[in-house]
Amino acid sequence: MTFKTKTIIVTGAGGGMGKATVESLLEEGANVIGCDLNVAALSELEDNPRFQAVAGDLLDEAAVQHIFEEAKRKFGSVDGLANVHGIAQSATPIEECSLSEYRKIIDVNMTSIFLTCREAAKYMKGQGSGKIVNIGSVSVTRPRPGLQAYVASKGAVESFTKALALELAPHHVTANVLHPGPADTSMLGEFTAEGGSVDDTKKEVFESSVPLGRLLQPADIAKSVKYLLSDSAEMITGAVLHVDGGRNI
């Protein structure tokens, strides 16, 4: 599974899953553009000549365009896009979820993916190849109470990715969605209801729901994203891959 000469853009690169994805791709020889609002967590990778961090708001069209322009300028192509960014929703009864909070979750988790995929299509269609991986959530298949806005946003990611896969197939561009299960990252604690215990929620709500008996690690997700971006997945498009320890069953 080689990525030599391939250039991959990874969003949410400063988070647990995102950084693990960046590191995994660099190990395989890829050129990587790591994007996040704050790229301080990526400073240790700055000495790698095949890596560049780009700070930017993925809801800003000009910022998204700049990210892709930088990839093209520095490495000569855009061969893959891994959208690993996203935000959680604190478990909240529907009547207590404000319109502004709902809109924020939809925008960050879905509208930003529309913008990055739209930009990726311009480059990938022109070169007649490319791979897109969008991160969804097992909650689309197995929802939890109080996460209605979050589940809606990730359900939209799945539907959008399938539609995109069909549209881009004639150009030999693939698009797949990966639904992670509960992962041992800082984001998992953000699903805790206001006033609840983060540690108890992780252990009693999430870890106990995984048939394989443990929370996922960022590396579990990174390895699967890397596979979907690789030539080994050449004929996989419009697929939904659950990497969740059996949580979706």
What are the main properties of this structure?
249 residues; 7-stranded parallel sheet
Written as H for each helix and E for each strand, in order along the chain, the element string is: EHEEHEHEHEHHHE
The strand count comes to: 7
Q: Mind telling me the C-alpha Rg?
A: 17 Å
- Could you describe the largest sheet, including whether it forms a barrel? 7 strands, parallel
What is the subunit organization of this protein?
single chain
- The fraction of residues assigned to DSSP E strands is 15-25%
The backbone outline, from C-alpha atoms, is globular
Q: Any low-confidence stretches, pLDDT <50, length ≥5?
A: none
Q: Give the proportion of residues in helices.
A: 40-55%
The whole-number mean of residue pLDDT values reads 93
Gap between N and C termini: 30 Å
**Helix count?**
7
Helix vs. strand class: alpha/beta
Spatial order of the strands forming the largest sheet = 3-2-1-4-5-6-7
Task: Tell me what the structure shows.
It contains seven helices and seven strands, in the order βαββαβαβαβαααβ. It is 41% helix and 15% strand. It has 249 residues and is α/β, with parallel strands linked by helices. The model has no long low-confidence stretch (mean pLDDT 93).
Question: In short, what is this structure?
Answer:
41% of the residues lie in helices and 15% in strands. It is built from seven helices and seven strands.
